[in-house]
Design goal:
The protein contains no helices and 17 strands. By secondary structure, it is mainly beta.
Length: about 200
């Protein structure tokens, strides 16, 4: 990883740490002119190739990069049994289009070769947590990239339709930030209730 990481997360087994961190662009020349190709890009991001998912083996210190390509991942979350990881994956929109979309993806922690989409990637999805049975993800997001209230969504791993758990409310689901209320979604251990 190259730079500051986002909230490292221990695996339930205590043998690995998952983290989102920026990746360096191998051929970046700090003396060369910087070309901004998309609305929303900043000069500070020119030297990295997106924020990617890494897994650190605690015993041996080995670091594996899980994701690749153009885009950024959110803070990862481990499945209850520690076998899989879920992240929100944000891909940039087309040139001069400020609408970037994100979707949830799941990857096998032992053999991270395929990112499996959960739900669709036409909206905005971030922070994510697993349900205790490991069959669904809860995420804060919305079904379109356009501005609007964020919702609490349940996305089944098996591909069933996305369920808006806050459809009857006319309020924004807040995920928290400095000076703002809210927090990452969480589920009670018995699965009876979700909290944000």
């Amino acid at each position: 990883p190259a730079g500051r990481t986002r909230r490292p997360v221990w695996s339930p087994t205590g043998t690995a740490i998952a983290v989102a961190a920026p990746s360096s662009v191998a051929d970046f020349d700090p003396a060369a002119p910087v070309v901004i190709e998309r609305i929303g890009e900043m000069l500070g991001t020119a030297a990295h190739a997106g924020t990617h998912l890494y897994v650190v083996d605690v015993a041996g210190g080995r670091i594996r990069r899980i994701t690749d390509g153009d885009g950024d991942v959110s803070t990862p979350t481990w499945s209850p049994d520690g076998s899989r990881l879920a992240v929100g994956l944000r891909r940039p929109g087309p040139q001069f289009n400020p609408e970037a979309t994100s979707g949830a993806v799941v990857v096998d922690a032992a053999e991270p070769t395929v990112l499996v989409p959960v739900g669709d990637d036409k909206g905005v999805v971030e922070p994510i947590c697993w349900t205790p049975d490991g069959k669904s993800l809860l995420a804060v997001g919305r079904s379109t990239p356009t501005p609007g209230n964020l919702r609490l969504l349940r996305m089944s791993i098996d591909g069933a339709a996305i369920e808006d758990l806050t459809a009857q409310h006319d309020r924004n689901v807040m995920t928290g930030a400095p000076a703002y209320p809210g927090g990452r979604p969480a589920v009670l251990a018995d699965g009876s209730a979700a909290v944000v």
